[in-house]
Amino acid sequence: MGVEGCTKCIKYILFFFNFIFWLAGGVILGVALWLRHENKISSLLELKVDGTQAPNTFYISVHILIAVGAVMMVVGFLGCYGAIQESQCLLGTFFACLVILFACEVAAGIWGYMHKDTVSKEMITFYDSVYDKAMTPTMKDQETKQAVAHVLKVFHETLNCCGKGLGTSILTQLTDKLGFSNVCPNQQFNTSCHSRIQELFSNKIYLIGIAALVVAVIMIFEMIFSMVLCCGIRNSPVY
Q1: DSSP readout, 175-230?
Q2: Is 181 in contact with 143 (CB distance < 8 Å)?
Q3: Most CB within 10 Å of its CB: which of 9, 126, 165, 202?
Q4: What whole-number distance in Å separates Cα of residue 68 and Cα of residue 62?
Q5: b/e burial code for range 61-84 (CB count within 10 A of at least 16 → b)
């Protein structure tokens, strides 16, 4: 016994969309885990200077993304099973979960848009503080000076840049040649670290935004089809 006609067609369409939703959850989970362990990001966000940790706002967003991906996979499986079993209870639960997820995604999207430049600004501020400490000629604590210089060198080697801008880049490379510092890579880089930091994090946030938009569209279709199928099951004469 089961639904017939157009309702049966909707059943399989919903199953297909749920399967795509489940796959999307897996992709988001995979991308989030990749972002969490991406070499450039990890090497920068795990840095410490005088007990001050690099800003972790980006990691907070990534951890939320990991949770969303895992929940999407569970909800997607629930929707697939509910569609195949033609269960009004499962489909109702699935619809409720979708509404909650969609609301959370919209709220996260608004927050993300309002703070899209926060991560790069925090990292630039952190870099500037490290750079200023490393370039301070009056610093007498050699151990602290070496630790700060090491952190600055990690920035430069990871991002293939040197200095806050063209002027500081040339100045830093000059002090390296004169032996007063050793923080820039061996290659000659005139690229501002400010622009490199913005490129690194802006590209990752752009990738997250595209994934969220695709998932939102899928969720809208799933909510429509799940309600239509649920009503079709209720009104079907075979039940």
Answers
A1: HHHHTS---S-SS-----HHHHHHHHHHHHHHHHHHHHHHHHHHHHHHHHHHHHHH
A2: no
A3: 126
A4: 10
A5: bbeebbebbebbbebbbbbbebbe
Q: What residues pair up with 52 in beta bridges, in sequence order?
A: 49
Task: Locate 100 and state its tokens.
Answer: 């909650």
pTM of the model: 0.68
Q: Looking at the domain that runs over 120-194, which CATH code has it been given?
A: 1.10.1450
Model confidence pLDDT, tens digit, residues 184-226: 766 556 677 888 888 877 777 777 777 778 888 888 888 888 8
Encoded tokens for 65: 């993304």
Tokens coding 222: 């799933």
User: Which residues 6+ apart lie within 8 Å of 154 measured at CB?
Assistant: 43, 44, 47
User: What is the C-alpha separation between 72 and 11, in angstroms, rounded?
Assistant: 20
Q: Which of 106, 83, 79 lies closest to 93 in space, CA to CA?
A: 79
